[in-house]
Amino acid sequence: MDNHFSNAQRAEVLTQALPYIKRYNGKIVVVKYGGNAMINEQLKQQVMEDIALLWLIGVKVVLVHGGGPEINETMKKLGKEAVFVDGLRVTDKETVDIVQMVLAGKVNKTLVNLLQMKGGHAVGVSGIDGGIIEARVKDDRLGYVGEITKIRTQPITDLLEKNYIPVVSTVASDREGNTYNINGDTAAAYIAGALGAERLIMMTDIAGILHDKDDPSTLIPELTISQARALYDEGVISGGMIPKVDCCIEAIHKGVQNVIIMDGRVPHSILMEILTDEGAGTMVTGD
Questions:
Q1: How far apart (Å, rounded) are the C-alpha atoms in residues 132 and 126?
Q2: Which of the chain's ends, N or C, has fewer CB atoms near its CB within 10 Å?
Q3: Could you tell me if 21 and 57 are in contact, meaning their C-beta atoms sit under 8 angstroms apart?
Q4: Residue 286 and residue 20: Cα distance in Å, rounded?
Q5: Distance of CA 177 to CAs 167, 169, 186, Å?
């Protein structure tokens, strides 16, 4: 922290956060974490600090994570070529084994370890554990890419009640015991909805929804679902942003109060979003 910051100023900052601490104390906040915020080691440390701090002030944080870049790296090391159809990764039996190994193993345990180093108590689970995420084949051309058919929240709520931070990796299974790779944003939306979360925070590598995708100053701070649909028609929400906003709308339909799309590359953006007037990114709300 900046040493020019006096103790009185620090105390002032804390008192300004008080109404927000009261508002979120005991409430469930789901954080979807992945992409570039995960690659940069310093950022990863800060995100884990933010989550541990929220947990320490009584927010029930559920961390849902992907790990695309780590999967790509491991596939490359194993000499396996990534194949995509319509922008979605084709996942054969060997690839889904790699996905499970990387997400439920390496990435999940790394995050649990970091959270514990920052003073949080965390337990890592995959969507397979306790049948948290049940899925079926989404599209035969994609192999073991799953479409969610059911969410069981009990294992997550049990961990929250025992005062742990659940860290959930987005692999799933079906009743025949097949394993599926699940899109991280979709999994976070379904989990947040099933938990009736106060808020879902989607960490991405852009500032939020922009009127002009090349100009960060055109950030749209707040949107209703119907305004978002109008922006689809205008072509403002396009490309990779479409599935993200679809997930926001899905989460709200499933019972989440509001969803934030924010830039995970900005240090401490989670704390700015939850504990200040300013907020960060774009908030999507129901009509």
A1: 8
A2: N
A3: yes
A4: 21
A5: 22, 17, 21
b/e map 223-251, b = 16+ CB within 10 Å: beeeebeebeeeebbeeebeebbbbbbbb
Helix (H) or strand (E) holding 147: strand 146-151
Look at residue 2 in the predicted model and tell me its pLDDT. 52
Q: Mind listing the pLDDT tens digit for each residue in 163-179?
A: 999 999 999 999 999 99
Residue 88's CB is within 10 A of a number of other CB atoms, namely: 16
Q: What is the pLDDT of residues 196-222, one digit of tens each?
A: 999 999 998 888 899 887 888 899 999
Query: What tokens does 41 get?
Result: 């080691």
Q: DSSP character for 153? A: -
d(CA 164, CA 160) in angstroms, rounded, equals 5
Separation in Å, CA 276 to CA 14, 140, 152 = 10, 46, 33
* Residue 6 clears pLDDT 90, i.e. is over it: no
Q: What pLDDT score was predicted for residue 241?
A: 85
**Among residues 152, 149, 143, 147, which one has the least CA distance to residue 125?**
152
Tokens encoding 28: 């469930």
Distance CA 118, CA 45 (A): 8
State phi, psi for 259 to the nearest 5 degrees: -125, 135
In SS3 terms, 43-59 reads as: HHHHHHHHHHHHHHCCC
What are the pLDDT digits (tens) for 113-155?
Answer: 999 999 999 999 999 999 999 999 999 999 999 999 999 999 9
Residues 6+ apart with CB under 8 A from 211: 218, 220, 236
